[in-house]
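Task 17 of the worksheet. Students: predict the tertiary structure of the chain below and write it out as structure tokens. Keep your answer in the requested format; marks are given for formatting as well as content.
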Amino acid sequence: MTSDTGSSPIATKSRRASWFAASSPSTTDPYAQLLIAAMKQSGWYVNYFILCSNIFIVGDQQSFSSSSQTLFVPFSTVFNDRHFSCENCDGCVSGGFDSATSQIVLCQNNIRHQSHMNRVVAHELIHAFDHCRAHVDWFKNVKHLACSEIRAANLSGDCTLMNEIARFKFGLKGHHQTCVRDRAIRSILAVRKVSRETAEKAVDEVFDACFNDLEPFGRIPHSKTDAKRAYKDFLNRDRYTANL
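Model answer:
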């Protein structure tokens, strides 16, 4: 729950879940780069690539040959477990995070293009980051779910101006907050059997605290350029801390 100090209901209690060390090439999307670096810095080590069939382009073109029918995405392995799974999904869901297995599911039949894939990966990595750093009650506490959905919509690029224009939804003052709220509510309704009123209430009760919880970006990355700057600042912050 939200504390009197206004901190988010997802408390920053370290959980070094099953994200183990492995050497790998770097992914090229700055949102994913920063999230993976933040998890590795805190002891949740992440390996990077798994082949998904029937979808788009290679993630690291320096290391793998490209194909119009394949995509390499960040992932983590623990022995034979996969922390990224490419599957066919029902409805129009693009992806999800399974807290029981610490696995991100990518819906290869619903992901339309590479930039869509990048957003889905970033969105679900934020859920994974929250799961690792906090004791999130995903199933019994709808406020916890609401908080992570607010953060994912705010920080993953879901609500960039270009994405909203593509959805024919755009405005002026306060539109980013409106987009974050709407998409958080939509995500809750997609994964939980609750009423719209319940979802809206949960989002509204935690919105300010969770919207302003910008970890690990330190800012709202409104574009890939912003995300690159945030990633650079994160690396510099890490070097500064190491030298203290």
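Marker's comment: The two ends are 34 Å apart (CA to CA). The first strand starts at residue 50 and ends at 53.
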